[in-house]
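Sample intake sheet
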Amino acid sequence: MESQKKMMVVFGLVAAVFLQCVAAQTTHVVGGSVGWTIPQTGAQEYVTWASGQKFVVGDFLIFNFTTNSHDVLEVPKASFDSCSSTGSTIKTGPANITINSTGEQYYICTIGNHCQSGQKLAITVLTSATSPGGSPSAPSPSTTANNTPGVTFCAGFVLCSLSLVMGLFF
């Protein structure tokens, strides 16, 4: 009877870790089905898209674009505002970027007048997916998915750990 209680506690802890891993990473397809392109509906298109998302450390940004037609560069706010660029751009689409820090982050396309035409993205990255009101965020299913490589690794790690722990009890 005592070993059953221990096993239930261990199982509960492993399940909690697994759920945290799954909830911690979201893939955001920038612009949703439109992708990373010159906005057709106006310069506010990416502002509107970003306002419907919750970005947290560990999430992924996917910039879907045609290679040689667009690129993506993370820039400081001043460069975002002025559409000026220096640094190394990601020129091959799609571009996958892991969000590694909290705060404001800015991305632009450096080709031609694309940035001036509204092909730029500003996001605010939080430390967790919990909104200030305390409820979990609800990402839009059309623009996010939780089937990321990080989640697959986490699930495998948790399952291996669980099998090792269960082996100790049997």
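Comment: The longest helix spans residues 2-24. The helical segments are 2-24, 45-51, 77-82, 149-169.
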